[in-house]
Amino acid sequence: MENKMKIEIWSDIMCPFCYIGKRNFEKALAQFPNKDLIEVEWKSFQLDPAMPEVPKYQQDMYMFVADRKGLSYEQSKRMHQDMTQYAQSVGLEYNLDKALVTNSMKGHRIIQFAKTKGLGEKAEETLFYAYFTEGKNLNDQTALTELGKEIGLTETEVNTALTDTLYVQKVENESSEAQTLGAKGVPFFVLNRKYAIAGAQHPNDILQTLEKSFYAWWKENSQTTLETIQGKSCSIEGECN
Prior knowledge:
By secondary structure, the protein is of the alpha+beta class. It has a single domain, classed as Glutaredoxin, CATH 3.40.30.10. The chain is 50% helix and 9% strand. It contains nine helices and four strands. A four-stranded mixed sheet has the order 2-1-3-4. The longest helix is centred in the C-terminal third of the chain and has 19 residues, at 203-221.
């Protein structure tokens, strides 16, 4: 029997629904009686690879989104206020008035390195919190070094993540992989490569899919097949030969 059922989660650390989806998933998993038999892998998905490191209206997310989507400033602000309330309903504090819009590649590079140390989930949580709650610049070297240390990386390891092109390739490969599996956006959850959950769904809905996928995985992996060397024996029908 394989040890654990795998769940892969694609997200972008600057996607507000991804952080909400993470919390909803954690609530669902906490209710799942076989959670010790679940292995979770966080994966990278860049929503906007072409985003400049210092985009226009970087320090004003409301204006940035208004300009990009053709909304009025007030429409954008109301939309973000609704998002903040939604986040609050799942226990998250979004301070979008001080968020600094930027390209997410450097953050993803750190996540990819952290995964090699078994720190993928901690990297996701740390960077989500830094961006949405603390308003930190996820393209600033000093800020990223400090965040890396919070995750459990050394300064040298952070520098490696930010300079070795291997980690860019890993980010790009995982983004392509998600699209191959049918992802149109994030968060995107794939359970046992048989079921998918798109978006930040309610914990109860996630739990139902988790139970269904686990049942299928258990059926596939709980049967033991033995290579048998046959000798003289008695059968359950009472025949001995």
